[in-house]
Amino acid sequence: MAVAVTTKTAWKLQEIVAHSSNVSSVVLGKGSGRMLATGGDDCRVNIWSVSKPNCIMSLTGHTTPIESLQVNPNEKLIVAGSRSGSIRVWDLEAAKVLRTLPGHKANICSLHFHPFGSFVASGSLDTNIKLWDVRRKGCIFTFKGHTEAVRCLRFSPDGKWVASAADDHTVKLWDLTAGKLMFEFTGHTGPVNVVEFHPNEYLLASGSSDRTVRFWDLEKFQVVSCIEEEATPVRCVLFNPDGCCLYSGFQDSLRVYGWEPERCFDVVLVNWGKVADLSISNNQLIGVSFAQSTVSSFVVDLSRVPKSDSVPHGLIRDDQPLVPPTPTGSSLRRIYDRPSTSCTKPQSRVKHNSESERHSPSSEDDRDEKESKAEIKNQEDYKEIFQPKNAICRTPPRNEPFPAPPEDEPVAAKEAAKPSQAADVQTSLPKQELPDPVQRPLIASSTSSTRTEPSVIPAARNEPIGLKASDFLPAVKNQSQTELVDEEAMSQIRKGHETMCVVLTSRHKNLDTVRAVWSTSDIKNSLDSAVAINDLSVVVDLLNIVNQKASLWKLDLCTIVLPQIEKLLQSKYESYVQTGCTSLKLILQRFLPLITDILAAPPSVGVDISREERLHKCKLCYKQLKNISNVVKNKSGLSGRHGSAFRELLLLMAVLE
């Protein structure tokens, strides 16, 4: 009798080598969930069909690496922003560049298409948000208010507002009709990476590097709830199409949230690393991530993921039963009014605020458009997707979900200990028998073997999420040794434990020493003692405290800290680099103007000891900053968040040249 095969809840669909150099940005088409666009340090934008191994089209024209991408709702247009601040819009059906939009002075960090108009919003490292009219080649309006890079932009479903998230820890809501700020949401304690409007209600979700997801009421302009228990930064969020829950992408996991009250319906482990974008199609969630020159896509079967009306886990605050969530579309919160025609308000603003009149079509624009071109790599796929015979369905077929591969092992945990399990798995799943080596070539098969991923984690589990005891156990050569597993497991787990205890004890002692100096003296002496200990981890711990209170910084402190910052910026530890960047940014913003003014001032008449001391400190700081500027310049070419941080520092240090 045939045995029903249990399929996976989450699996890796494919891995492709997307560019000849590092990939810097990826985005999924939200209309079909089948279109993938990638941008790279090779200054190209490549178009792919999800699950197909070959590039359909390659778009050229940018002269600096691509930093941000976005596809419009009907997947006919794509916009790409580069490191230089240039924006290009391509028409995918005509296979040509449609517009070149100059105006930003630094990296383009975020882009978004208006839901039903020919408008694009762009956010930049220069802290500005610009609204563009694609038809008129011009900037309609510039929104100013953020103090750091704008990381994410989203238009509201009715097209009247735009929400922005930035590194300055704030979320801002802008009124497009009035051309002004409506409200600033504060509460996050780290850079805000992503924002997303609820598809129906006046509700906004934001995810941050402070490892929280916050929900904001857009009628009362207050926080609805905050989910704070996560261990890694929030990388992307997406509401379910009916608005019943929010999907949040974290490092190697997908979490499903409700917000009134705040709760986690499910945690699905997906080995996608740092997921970059999410899309939903055919009751499947598609996620994409990138590392170096490769892009990987993953699928989560949403039919097996609880979204509501089930016992949630992880965020329950007591043992009382939860009140069922209010059905979508109820009168709990106001619902968006979607006009039947395209937005006319921004068009009327063109006459009053448009900068497009200053940028009329010129020979320069024509030259840019001639230099930009679309190379069709796969004519057959291109015609199938962008020029189909049946004009009604322009995108790839939507009625066929990706087939789910079978589970690598039986679901019942109790059967996992049976001696016959290994043989059963090998006979029933012959395709999973061979290990899948690390492959850089294209992997198009959805059933290609990947690391075993657990499906839905039961609420009554008795093991920690994300950890499997078998990963820590030595391989058992024969079943007669199973009774020794506990002892061997403890031996494996305790390896290096004593060494780690010694390291942590030493660090604790060093921190106690620094704390004692701080309590009896001042911050300068405590930093001196931290540097004298010659342990960078102690310096990092101390700087993380000092960075939170800018008033503690003095010129004396800079002379001590700058040599340590140079070491931190070259460290192999990400947290050290982040702390170094934060401290250096504070010093540049607070003291660099003072240092340059004092060095440029004419010599004083007579003897002024305090001035001479200050001049000596400024010269020392200037010399140290010059040394650090070389490190910053070398690392400014990196892609991702660190690259942006170093490029921002490079802009601040331009006065040193």
From TrEMBL:
Entry-linked PROSITE patterns: WD_REPEATS_1 (PS00678), WD_REPEATS_2 (PS50082), WD_REPEATS_REGION (PS50294)
Domain called Katanin p80 subunit C-terminal: residue spans: 495-653
Repeat (WD) residue spans along the chain: 16-58, 59-100, 101-142, 143-184, 185-226
GO cellular component entries: centrosome; cytoplasm; katanin complex; microtubule; spindle pole
Predominant place of localization: cytoplasm
CDD domains: WD40
Similarity field: Belongs to the WD repeat KATNB1 family.
Protein name in the entry: Katanin p80 WD40 repeat-containing subunit B1
Region annotated Disordered, chain positions: 310-461
Complex formation: Interacts with KATNA1. This interaction enhances the microtubule binding and severing activity of KATNA1 and also targets this activity to the centrosome.
SUPFAM superfamilies assigned to the protein according to its UniProt record, in alphabetical order: WD40 repeat-like
Feature: compositional bias, Polar residues: 444-453
Coiled coil regions, renumbered to chain: none
UniProt-recorded Gene Ontology molecular function terms: microtubule binding
Comp. bias regions, Basic and acidic residues: 352-386
Swiss-Prot/TrEMBL GO biological process terms: cell division; microtubule depolymerization; microtubule severing
Record-linked Gene3D superfamilies: YVTN repeat-like/Quinoprotein amine dehydrogenase
Compartments reported by the entry: Cytoplasm, Cytoskeleton, Spindle; Cytoplasm; Cytoplasm, Cytoskeleton, Microtubule organizing center, Centrosome; Cytoplasm, Cytoskeleton, Spindle pole
Function (record text): Participates in a complex which severs microtubules in an ATP-dependent manner. May act to target the enzymatic subunit of this complex to sites of action such as the centrosome. Microtubule severing may promote rapid reorganization of cellular microtubule arrays and the release of microtubules from the centrosome following nucleation.
SMART domains, per the entry: WD40
